Amino acid sequence: MIEVERLSKHYHSVKAVDRVGFSVGRGEIVGLLGPNGAGKTTTMRMLTTYLVPTSGRAVLSGHDVLDEPLEVRKKVGYLPENVPLYPEMRVREYLSYRAKLKDVPSSKRRRAIDGVLEKCKLADVESRVLGHLSKGYRQRVGLAEAMVHDPDVLVLDEPTAGLDPMQIREVRALIRELGNQHTILISTHIMSEVEAVCGRVIMIVKGKVALDDRLDQIQERGAIVLEARGPLAAIRQALEATPGVTRVGVTDHQGDVARFEVLTQGGADLREQLAGRVVQNGWSLRLLDLQKSSLEERFVRAVREASFAPDDLTETETEAA
Amino acid sequence: MRHVPTLLRRELSAYFLGPMAFLILLAFQAIALMNFWQLVDDLSRSGQSFSGLRDPLNAYISGSLPFWIGLLVAVPVLTMRLVAEERRSGTIEPLLTAPVTEAEVVVSKWLAGFVMYLVLLLPFALYLPFLYYQGNYRFDLGPVVALGIGLASIGLMLVAIGLFFSSLTRNQIISAVLTFATVFLLIFVTRAAYTFAQFRRASWAEAMEFVSIIDQVNTFGSGQLDLRFLVVHLSVAVPLLYLTAKVLEYRREV
DSSP string covering A91-139, please? Predict the structure, then answer.
């Protein structure tokens, strides 16, 4: 449904989106996760043909965003950030106007509008003026508008931003329900949102894809937490030398007690081997635990890794020059 | 261009759902009433010869300073929000991600502005039948038709100018000031330059007379439907519309 290859957007010297690539299959709900300013909105704007990519390719529902922008627009429903609406129009009037623009045939228009009004629970405000609606209702009008032409793909930019907890629950439930019929790409910087609605997560940090994985696999792949008493550097070296270990991080260090976080290849459970190493060297093992990694940990890790990436250093150097 | 009726309807309803259009309509209604009063007053003083009254329509419209000042204010006010407001409020994003082309958007906004311009001039036309039937003053109908076509053609140009400036910025005030300055140039500066050139017997006087909107309206009002003027207006309007569409397209690149 969505195929993105090496998609980039540069604003002068700033790389807002840098060679992003991913693909989303039919019926998937994918969360586009990233800190503010990571390039989520820019990516979505390129997918919805609002912006033209500097380089790269994006194909939605079989149509290239550069070659056939109008075809792409017909197949995509888009909820922009902050849901810009014409304040003077009424809810039904606005949906009817948008349905006409989106070429919903007049015979089906009424039913389509009634359908989205019902799905988004807007029936009781259908004759209210948009400018007088609360944030929650505006968001729902935006959603209704995005799907009034029954698009293959829904692109939702922060659909729950600014809503109260009850409204967030409702919108999330609605999105889950929509996932049965549409391919959905949601951007957010809220972890729990991704956990609540998405099957897959794509993390974008500093304009690059930092992680692209199924949610259940992320949660499966854990880290081993190990606390030992002894010389920090030596323990760390010993842990790193264990076959299968990909990374060792020090999470806490007090006196001669240190706590490590050990990542293993494919999330293998190496607890016994690690314990063996520690004990063999004569250090005392105080704690050993296999922790399921949460999305939040992966997120923080991805952001940290990206901010120490060598690419980033060269970029700041050139900026300074 | 099949989305134009839908887009045009929204633009027009946006005009009438805000207070600005009504204020300007009211002002033009007042100007039309005043001018008509003046016209009837002048016509009823028989015996006195006013040079302008040989072309009563020119005394009614093109010779009226309030009309020109009204137009100078109305055109920027009517056109300033067309694109700038969509940019400021962000509604341009859903607009340009719907399956409509930039050309459709530009043409609809231009037509909406033009319709509003015609609505402004409507009061002037509405008074004339009273003079004709009620006042039993049988003026020639030819000049009225020529004047109507001429003013409409000028409107196509002025609205295109305002629309173009509106597309350049998200700030309506900037758009209005730029349009105001341009329209001022076309109405008053060209007229002043023509008078000056004529006084100095300069060779460019004729050129100034040709581009001066007031003199164009005088020509139309005296019954000459000079097609060269229509060509001038369209040759300003059409490239500006093209540029406006290009501005909207360019915005996707940056």
Answer: HHHHHHHHHHHTT--HHHHHHHHHHHHHHTT-GGGTTSBGGGS-HHHHH
